[in-house]
């Protein structure tokens, strides 16, 4: 795995034309794996053209690594085929479950943070890593509920997963903030509790603050509280690959390029302070 790709954007269909016309100064793109799993067609055609010029990371949403349903081997085979085609720097998905007994919740549900859950997850991660022939990169989700049975913090759980399976971690700084507000923990404790060597990448995104709780919307610019937390993450983890996500209210590409420049500025300041 390459150590750091710089500052990237989530590749979204409304931006295909602008990217192919202007080849913007984006260091890398992250694709939603599931959008490119059907053979042929326009999405893959655009991806091939973009991949020829930029590094790409594959980010999945339907692995459901935490589910008690068996791993979907057909899905994993299609992920592997796509990886053979676009040669991603790495492949990520979420620490969650998305359904069970054949029904899909279309949401990324959190897990109980217990030894029992670790014992369930670790062999599944091992198997996925075997099938994909590379370390899996796992992202912390934002959450709104927790389990009374949890016996450790989310960050202790992530650290144990990384130690036991060799998986890498994608720290979504916005998700850390959103969950910290919803569950009442100190977001810096989360970041400080994750082992530095295990972290591969950062995510940044916008959220909606309703006062009593916070919703992870990905439909607005990154908020100041998250920029501050991102600066803290950079001081702890160093200049890791940073990805800006926007999934709703998608603005013209230039707006996201300007926001990516803000990430570059925050990083420059945070890293010079750390030095
Ligand atoms: Fe994310």
Q: How would you explain this protein's 3D organization?
A:
The radius of gyration is 18 Å and the shape is globular. It has 275 residues and is an alpha/beta fold. Helix 5 (154-165) packs parallel to helix 7, helix 7 runs parallel beside helix 8 and helix 8 crosses helix 9 (253-274). It starts with 6 loop residues before the first strand and ends with a helix. It has one domain (7-274): Alpha-Beta Barrel (TIM Barrel), CATH 3.20.20.150. Helix 5 links the parallel strand 7 (136-139) and strand 8 (168-172). It has nine helices and twelve strands. Bound molecules: fe (ii) ion. Fe (ii) ion (FE2) is lined by residues 139, 172, 175, 203, 205, 245.
Describe how the helices and strands are arranged.
Layout: E1 7-10, H1 16-22, E2 28-32, H2 42-51, E3 56-59, H3 73-86, E4 91-94, E5 97-100, E6 103-109, H4 115-132, E7 136-139, H5 154-165, E8 168-172, H6 173-183, H7 187-193, E9 199-204, E10 208-209, E11 214-215, H8 224-237, E12 241-244, H9 253-274
Helix pairs in contact: 4-5, 5-7, 7-8, 8-9
Residues 139, 172, 175, 203, 205, 245 line the site of fe (ii) ion.
Keywords summarizing the entry:
single chain; 275 residues; alpha/beta; TIM Barrel; 8-stranded parallel β-barrel; two-stranded antiparallel sheet; binds fe (ii) ion
Compact overview of the structure:
This protein has 275 residues and is α/β, with parallel strands linked by helices. Helix content is 42%, strand content 19%. The protein has 9 helices and 12 strands.
């Amino acid at each position: 795995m390459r150590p750091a790709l710089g500052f990237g954007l989530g590749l979204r269909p409304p931006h295909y034309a602008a990217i192919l016309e202007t080849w913007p100064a984006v260091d890398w793109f992250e694709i939603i794996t599931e959008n490119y799993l059907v053979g042929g067609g326009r999405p893959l055609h655009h991806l091939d053209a973009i991949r020829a010029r930029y590094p790409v990371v594959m980010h999945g949403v339907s692995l459901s690594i935490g589910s008690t349903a068996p791993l979907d081997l057909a899905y994993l085979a299609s992920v592997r085929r796509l990886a053979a085609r676009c040669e991603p720097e790495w492949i990520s998905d979420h620490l969650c479950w998305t359904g069970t007994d054949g029904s899909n919740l279309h949401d990324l549900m959190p897990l109980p943070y217990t030894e029992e859950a670790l014992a369930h997850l670790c062999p599944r991660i091992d198997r996925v890593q075997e099938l994909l022939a590379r370390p899996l990169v796992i992202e912390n989700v934002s959450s709104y509920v927790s389990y009374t049975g949890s016996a450790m913090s989310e960050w202790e759980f992530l650290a144990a997963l990384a130690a036991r399976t060799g998986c890498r971690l994608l720290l979504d700084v916005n998700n850390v903030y959103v969950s910290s507000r919803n569950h009442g923990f100190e977001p810096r404790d989360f970041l400080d509790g994750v082992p530095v060597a295990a972290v591969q990448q950062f995510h940044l995104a916008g959220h909606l603050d309703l006062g009593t709780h916070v919703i992870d919307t990905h439909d607005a610019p990154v908020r100041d509280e998250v920029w501050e937390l991102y600066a803290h993450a950079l001081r702890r983890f160093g200049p890791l690959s940073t990805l800006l996500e926007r999934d709703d209210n998608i603005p013209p590409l230039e707006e996201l390029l300007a926001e990516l420049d803000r990430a570059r500025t925050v990083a420059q300041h945070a890293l010079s302070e750390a030095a």
